[in-house]
Amino acid sequence: MKILKIAALGAVLAAQFTFAQFKQTPLPYAYNALEGSIDAQTMEIHYSKHGAAYAANLNKAIAGTPQEKQTLLQILSETSKLTPAIRNNAGGHYNHELFWTILTPEKNTQPSAKLAKAINETFGSLDAFKEKMSKAGADRFGSGWAWLSVDKNGKLFVSSTPNQDNPLMDIVEEKGTPVLGIDVWEHAYYLKYQNKRADYLSAIWNVLNWKEVSKRYEDALSKK
Ligand SMILES: [Fe+2]
């Protein structure tokens, strides 16, 4: 009896210490909050199925590896040495966690003065930047992401990566700290926009959370 109790206690302790390392943060708005630009069904499936799967599959992929004890940023910085399952799911988890935060139902958020100045200096104007970003997303063949990032010199740049790669990974050509990422996988828009990716890319600016992008920009600069 005593042995059984010890075994049961061991199982409880083991369960506590094998909990998932990475998990999704709650979506900061309702699934239907972005209606008009991104429909509720797309948001629900995207967050609760696709987003959830990246976190769960990342935990499975790192189980029993040294990455179990690493932060997500450490894992992303050495993806060239890791398995495709870790690369894809670490990227998927990071990218989606960023994506939920840079959308908002709040209307007319604006870039901070500092970010607006940097955008104007780098791209000419906010509209020119939006055009460049939308083009990066539209031109991405197959699935991937369009990014606005800060490079090692503190300069902004636009890039695109395939699949779930991102500018934090050591395998990408254009490295930096992402401050805005737009998901151009079909799962992000197909229910509402079908093959019209450009229409999705144009609508997303209506729900863009410039407060969050500005905060991420200023955080990235402060770490340079
Ligand atoms: Fe996605």
UniProtKB/TrEMBL annotation:
One of its GO terms (molecular function) is metal ion binding. Its EC number is 1.15.1.1. The keyword Thylakoid does not apply. Residues 22-103 form the Manganese/iron superoxide dismutase N-terminal domain. Keywords: Metal-binding, Oxidoreductase, Signal. Residues 111-216 form the Manganese/iron superoxide dismutase C-terminal domain. Residues 1-20 form the signal peptide. Pfam families: Sod_Fe_C, Sod_Fe_N. Mn(2+) binds at H46, H96, D183, H187. The keyword Signal applies. InterPro entries: Mn/Fe_SOD, Mn/Fe_SOD_BS, Mn/Fe_SOD_C, Mn/Fe_SOD_N, Mn/Fe_SOD_N_sf, SOD_C_sf. It catalyses: 2 superoxide + 2 H(+) = H2O2 + O2. It is an enzyme of class 1 (oxidoreductase). It comes from the Bacteria. GO terms for cellular component: cytoplasm. Belongs to the iron/manganese superoxide dismutase family. Destroys radicals which are normally produced within the cells and which are toxic to biological systems. This is Superoxide dismutase. It comes from Chryseobacterium phosphatilyticum.
